[in-house]
Write a structure and sequence with these properties.
The complex is a heterotrimer. By secondary structure, chain A is of the alpha/beta class. Chain A has a domain at 21-112 and 185-271: Rossmann fold, CATH 3.40.50.300. Chain A has helices at 68-76, 99-103, 121-125, 132-136, 139-148, 152-155, 168-180, 198-211, 224-230, 248-253, 258-266; strands spanning 30-39, 42-52, 56-61, 83-88, 91-92, 107-110, 186-190, 216-220, 233-238, 241-247. In chain A, helix 5 (139-148) packs across helix 7. Chain B is mostly helical. Chain B has helices at residues 3-39, 45-49, 64-94, 98-113, 116-130, 137-161, 165-173, 178-207, 210-213, 235-243, 249-280. Chain B is globular and about 70 Å long. By secondary structure, chain C is mainly α. Chain C has a single domain, classed as MetI-like (MetI-like fold). Chain C contains ten helices and two strands, in the order αββααααααααα. Classes of the chains: A alpha/beta, B mainly alpha, C mainly alpha. Chains A and B meet through helix 2 and helix 7 of A and helix 7 and helix 8 of B.
Chain lengths: 272, 282, 280
């Protein structure tokens, strides 16, 4: 366990839990190899490699400017000038038929600021579904998605109200429901609970844990405690590189790299 | 400097500004007032909506034919220009690289600055003579379309650029294709602004005379166009023609009346645009 | 993707319009340049019947009328903008602004009518002239036409200056006029400059109103600053002789050359205004 190593005061000690053995799939959902990104002479990402399992949460932590958000945008195709290899399932994204539009239906993205569309709550959830006939008959899907996003109870009697009437925390959960409604294999989340109230944070973390049972989540977060609460794996990035990755339970207690240790202790990174 | 002197100086400078500003405020209003006053005796239902032949060659008692002619030209011009303007703005926002954006922007800004009479001249030579369309609705509408094209495009572009980037990216993240993004995301949000731009373009097309003077209009007699290849008569050229016939007192009133009708027409479109904008902002 | 190609071709065609227009103007005025070289620009005689195509009278006319219009309209327009943005209470401000925007939409042919039947007799009687069709009339009329444009755009520029700037100036104890001169106007200057450039473009390109009041006599005013004589501008010349030219003649090429000059100056003005906006 902890041995004789000192821990920073703010780190909570995770309690031991007996887990049932989990069957791990052999094929990972996402396989990133030596991803690099350069914008205007600055290397935003360098030599980033990792794998995402088919299920579970993977948190990405690191200081500001470490390239975490850019990483997500590369995976989603919003940034296209990266070098390296990204493999979804078994197919390289560069050879994906149908282009990025098709690919994005398998990789959802939740941005930091919720951007709800100017339509009803129901309209938002069904927005990504192709074909207006299918959108009209999607009642059950709407309910399931909203339940998965931990929003159903609060909006079940006003599905046809404009989405703009929701609070920010509710809007963010609506965005999660919207992304989940098209059943992506991978869900990317860019600091989903930053600047939300504690209750919304808790609800979103709850919904993420639910989603993690069927989907692979990659969640960028500044909140180290959140990364610990989410369990699963953690990737620590600094200055555009992956410094360390591993199971969350191990990384937070016994980090291997000195940069990780420094970061966890002081929440700053002195990597060069 | 004591407090009193400071206030005194303020007052002087404010008075100077007021003095300089007075001509700017009074003269245009006085001009408008003069026009309406001169036109008052002539303006009635009969004047606007009939088109009998009047005294003198080419002078009509009523201006209905001219009214319809002006409207037809403006409508056709906007109908021709809108698809190109909207397509250019969409391309700019959706697919253009930075370099292409700069180029497009420069081209349209340059087009906007060129005096309409130059377009009229080119239209006269190319459309009326070279293509042998003759002096016609078609020639005039095409020339006018070129005049309002940059206005429409830049307006549509401004409307599209008011949509925040995160909104669009949220749609892209859901896997929406470009067509769906335009139709389901952008259009519901920006159609009000685009329509406002269209109304303003109509107002502009109604007030231009030089481009259509020799490409679309004739100065004699009442003309109802049989097809798009026949000439029309418009309020603008009607006024222009009347302005040079100041001898006949009858003509004077008709001219002012036509001017008032034209101003009213342009003002209606301008007001509609404003109202639409206000309504869209609620 | 079909959508992409359709949008791209539409955009291409639209932006090619200006290239086509300029190309056509160049191509058509080439015979004139070929025959007479570039010297005719400075010639003073315009007698198409004797193949004399001097541009100088029209150029001078355009220059004078635009200069006069700007001289009158800039101070008055900017002052009105200051009045509206800084001095007037909000209710009155809205009304004045609305009125100005209404004025800006008045068609130019109506101004021409005003010029012919109101301004010219006025000038004739007040200044005791033989004819009121003068450069002065053209300049005054143009000033009236561009006033609303300058006022509205300058007011936008002034309103765009942040509140914090005004308050900072006032809290330094600067008087209203000093804060206006040294803080507000310099800050709003980029916008005001654009307004002036746009107004200049409009004044230069105005055809119908000028055609009716300038006299259309191709002659250099004697002395050259005499605004009280009939003269000619580029636009007026094009407007008057457009219908009379036979296609293919040198006269035709000369008119097109006038158009080319107008277009070139207009493009430069517009590029200037546009670029300043980008860098400001």
């Amino acid at each position: 366990m902890t041995g004789g190593r000192k821990q920073a005061a703010y780190l909570t000690v995770p309690h031991q839990s007996i887990e049932a053995p989990v069957i791990v799939d052999e094929v990972s959902a996402l396989n990133v190899n030596q991803l690099g990104l350069q914008i205007d002479d600055k290397m935003i990402l360098q030599d980033v490699s990792f794998k995402l399992p088919t299920r579970g949460v993977t948190s990405v932590i690191g200081p500001s400017g470490a390239g975490k958000s850019s990483l997500l945008r590369c995976l989603n195709g919003l940034l296209t000038t990266w070098s390296g290899e990204i493999v979804v399932g078994e197919c390289d994204v560069r050879r994906w038929r149908g282009g990025w539009d098709q690919l994005r239906r398998h990789i959802g993205l939740i941005a930091q600021k919720p951007a709800v569309f100017r339509t009803t709550i129901r309209g938002n959830v069904t927005f990504g579904i192709q074909g207006w006939r299918r959108r009209r008959r999607a009642g059950e899907l709407v309910e399931n998605s909203l339940r998965q996003a931990a929003l159903w109870d609060e909006v079940k009697d006003r599905l046809d109200a404009p989405a703009a009437t929701l609070s920010i925390g509710q809007q963010q959960r609506l965005c999660i429901a919207r992304a989940v409604a098209i059943k992506p294999r991978i869900l990317l989340l860019d600091e989903p609970t930053a600047s939300l109230d504690p209750r919304s944070k808790q609800l979103i973390e709850q919904s993420m844990k639910n989603l993690a049972q069927e989907t692979s989540l990659l969640c960028v977060t500044h909140d180290l405690e959140q990364a610990q609460r989410l369990e699963g794996h953690t990737i620590f990035m600094c200055d555009g590189r992956v410094i360390e990755r591993g199971k969350s339970s191990q990384l937070f207690i016994d980090p291997q790299c000195i940069e990780t240790r420094e970061f966890l202790r002081w929440s700053v990174c002195d990597c060069d | 400097m004591s407090c009193g002197a400071l206030i005194h100086r303020d007052r002087i400078s404010k008075s100077v500004v007021l003095l300089l500003a007075l001509p700017a405020l009074i003269l245009p209003a006085a001009a408008l007032g003069y026009i309406l006053w001169q036109a008052a005796p002539v303006l009635n239902w009969h004047f606007i909506f009939s088109s009998e032949e009047g005294v003198g060659f080419g002078v009509t008692e009523g201006v209905f034919a001219q009214l319809i002619g002006s409207l037809l030209l403006a409508l056709m011009a906007c109908a021709i220009a809108t698809p190109f303007a909207v397509a250019s703005a969409l391309y700019y926002r959706l697919f253009a690289t930075t370099r292409q954006q700069q180029l497009l922007s420069a081209m349209f800004n340059m087009l906007q600055g060129i005096p309409p009479v130059v377009f009229g001249l080119c239209g006269l030579i190319v459309l009326v003579n070279l293509f042998e369309w003759g002096v016609s609705l078609a020639s005039g509408a095409l020339v006018m379309a070129v005049v309002v094209l940059p206005l429409l495009m830049l307006n549509t572009l401004a409307a599209l650029e008011r949509i925040p980037q995160e909104y669009t990216e949220a749609g892209m993240a859901l896997g929406l294709a470009s067509g769906a993004i335009i139709w389901r995301l952008w259009m519901p949000r920006s159609w009000v602004n685009v329509l406002t731009g269209l109304l303003l373009a109509m107002a502009r097309a109604l007030s231009e005379t030089a481009p259509i003077m020799f490409t679309a209009t004739v100065f004699s007699g009442v003309v109802w166009p049989d097809s798009i290849f026949s000439p029309v008569t418009t309020l603008q050229t009607h006024i222009f023609y009347l302005a040079q016939e100041a001898n006949d007192p009858q003509v004077i009133n008709i001219a002012w009346g036509s001017a008032a009708v034209l101003i009213l027409l342009v003002a209606i479109f301008g007001l509609l645009a404003r109202l639409l904008q206000k309504w869209g902002r609620h | 993707m079909i959508l992409r190609w359709w949008l791209a071709s539409s955009a291409l065609l639209s932006s090619m319009t200006i290239v086509l227009v300029i190309g056509f103007l160049l191509h058509s005025s080439w015979p004139l340049l070929q025959q007479q070289g570039i010297a005719f620009i400075a010639e003073t005689e315009w007698y198409p019947f004797e193949a004399l195509y001097g541009m100088l009278p029209a150029l001078l006319g355009t220059l004078w009328s635009v200069a006069l219009a700007l001289l009158i309209a800039i101070p008055c327009g900017v002052a009105a903008a200051i009045l509206c943005a800084e001095i007037l209470p909000p209710g009155l401000r809205g009304a004045v602004r609305f009125g100005m925007e209404l004025m800006a939409g008045i068609p130019s042919v109506v101004y021409g009518l005003l010029g012919m039947w109101l301004l010219i007799p006025l000038l004739e009687s007040q200044l005791d002239l033989l004819t009121g069709r003068t450069l002065l009339a053209a300049g005054l009329l143009l000033a009236l036409m561009i006033l609303p444009t300058i006022m509205v755009l300058s007011e936008d520029a002034l309103r765009g200056v942040r509140r914090s700037q005004r308050e900072a100036a006032l809290s330094l104890g600067l008087g209203w006029d000093v804060s206006l001169w040294r803080v507000l106007l310099p800050q709003a200057w980029p916008g005001i400059r654009v307004a002036i450039l746009l107004a200049m473009g409009r004044a230069m390109g105005e055809t119908v109103a000028v055609m009716l009041v300038v006299g259309s006599i191709d002659r250099i005013p004697q002395p050259f600053y005499n605004l009280l004589q009939p003269a000619q501008t580029l636009t007026s010349r094009i407007g008057r002789e457009m219908a009379e030219v036979s296609v293919g003649s040198l006269h035709w090429a000369a008119l097109l050359f006038c158009g080319l000059m107008l277009a070139m100056v207009a493009i430069s003005i517009s590029l200037l205004a546009h670029r300043r906006v980008v860098t400001a």
